[in-house]
């Protein structure tokens, strides 16, 4: 497989594929100086732990493509806006925008931490390898429609997404071949791994700050 995956910190990832660099949600809670500049930047949503304007400017090259939501258009006028359910082609591979949102957990009464339609998870099709980056989400019903996911990144930090037990039950719904728990906060990813024992799903636990 001509794909290298580098989890960086929290919700920030980097993929290298056929000489291309794809950054997901770069945020400077760590030193990015050793990482290469991006050919494509995927932004799930506008919260500060997922996007930082100065860092993205440093990661950009003249022809870098930035993909995000309508809310991110105000921060980066060059953003290619994708809505939930859309598929677009970038640099020779397709990217699908998928819902990410909270079902029950709220910032304040009636206000969810993540509102449906305001953010994108992404399914990146690296040739025959389908990678699902779930972003900040709970176990939403749309996940039942996920098909043929090879690698998944699933969040598990409270109160913003879901606990490890819930995340594990969620993963059982769509059965990726490999899953990385990420965006962990204070959650213990080993709990997540225990809940998936015997399912045939490979869990790769990360020591992410």
In short:
With 209 residues, the chain is mainly beta.
Number of helices: 3
Shape: globular
The CATH C-level name is Alpha Beta
The CATH architecture is 4-Layer Sandwich
Do you know the CATH topology? Metallo-beta-lactamase, Chain A
Give the strand tally: 15
Query: Secondary-structure element order, as H and E?
Result: EEEEHEEEEEEEEEHEHE
State Rg: 16 Å
Helix-strand makeup class: mainly beta
How are the strands of the largest sheet arranged?
7-8-11-12-13-14-15
Helix content: 10-25%
Sheet with the most strands, sense and barrel status: 7 strands, mixed
List the helices and strands and how they pair.
Elements: E1 3-9, E2 12-17, E3 20-24, E4 40-42, H1 53-59, E5 65-68, E6 80-81, E7 87-90, E8 93-99, E9 106-108, E10 111-112, E11 120-126, E12 129-133, E13 151-155, H2 164-174, E14 178-182, H3 189-195, E15 202-203
Parallel strand pairs: 3-4, 4-5, 5-6, 12-13, 13-14, 14-15
Antiparallel strand pairs: 1-2, 2-3, 7-8, 8-11, 9-10, 11-12
Helix pairs in contact: 2-3
Question: Could you please describe the fold and organization of this structure?
Answer:
The chain contains 3 helices and 15 strands. It is mainly beta and 209 residues long. The protein has one domain: Ribonuclease Z/Hydroxyacylglutathione hydrolase-like (Metallo-beta-lactamase, Chain A, 4-Layer Sandwich). It has a 7-stranded mixed sheet. Helix 2 crosses helix 3 (189-195). The longest helix is centred in the C-terminal third of the chain and has 11 residues, at 164-174. The radius of gyration is 16 Å and the shape is globular. The two termini are 27 Å apart. The model has no long low-confidence stretch (mean pLDDT 90).
């Amino acid at each position: 497989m001509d794909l290298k995956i580098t989890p960086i910190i929290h919700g920030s990832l980097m993929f290298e594929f056929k000489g291309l660099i794809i950054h997901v949600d770069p945020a400077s809670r760590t030193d990015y100086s050793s990482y290469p500049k991006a050919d494509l930047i995927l932004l799930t949503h506008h919260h500060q732990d997922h996007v930082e304007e100065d860092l993205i400017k440093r990661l950009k090259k003249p022809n870098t493509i930035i993909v995000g939501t309508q809310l991110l258009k105000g921060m980066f006028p060059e953003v290619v806006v994708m809505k939930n359910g859309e598929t677009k082609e970038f640099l020779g591979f397709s990217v699908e925008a998928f819902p990410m949102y909270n079902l029950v957990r709220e910032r304040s009464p009636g206000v969810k931490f993540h509102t449906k339609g305001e953010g994108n998870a992404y399914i990146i099709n690296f040739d025959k390898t389908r990678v699902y980056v779930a972003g900040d989400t709970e176990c939403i019903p749309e996940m039942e429609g996920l098909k043929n996911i090879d690698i998944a990144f699933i969040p598990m930090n409270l109160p913003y997404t879901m606990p490890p037990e819930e995340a594990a039950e969620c993963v059982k719904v769509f059965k990726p071949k490999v899953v990385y728990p990420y965006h962990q906060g204070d959650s213990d990813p080993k709990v997540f791994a225990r809940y998936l024992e015997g399912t045939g799903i490979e869990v790769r636990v990360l020591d992410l700050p």
